[in-house]
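My main concern about presentation is that the manuscript never shows what a single data entry looks like. The format is easy to grasp once an entry is in front of the reader. For illustration, here is how one protein appears when written out as sequence plus structure tokens:
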Amino acid sequence: MLREQLEQYVAAMADQAAVVGQFRAFLEEPDSFQRSRPDGHFTGAAWLVSADGQRVLLTHHRKLDRWLQLGGHADGDEDLRRVALREAEEESGLNGLVVEPEIFDLDRHWIPERGEVSGHWHYDVRFVVRATGDERYVVSEESHDLAWRDIRSIAEDIDADESLRRMAGRWLDRQRRE
């Protein structure tokens, strides 16, 4: 499934061919969907947008102490779209979420050593998840806090995480085309 999604992504985002190449190569590695793989593993993430498409729900991540998109480990599940939806539901407490079928963004990033877990790579596959009902969230144990943030503000915030700015810009471009 991921192989096909990567092909569709690179067809739509030709400028991302090098990143897709990294993900394709890692997909061929054994246990790439297992958290126990010490050098890195696939993760699924959610660009969780409000019903009006103007805001995104971010987590102040407890372990990394930064504002990021929701998401988490695949733990053997090779359907990263399903992982993204599950993590969005678990980390936000929101119901009625809908996940889009195609990859929205790819990001390979380093996770620093923490306790007994050595530093490793996350091959993060991100999907748009849409809120369709009540947008009152519940902060999970994985977060210091959650907040709905204006997407345009993220795109313009030079201090925001680079991948968040990239996704915000991509979302705004998509909104202009629709």
User: Anything to note?
Assistant: The beta strands are 40-49, 55-61, 67-73, 98-111, 120-130, 143-150. The first helix runs from residue 2 to 12. The first strand starts at residue 40 and ends at 49.
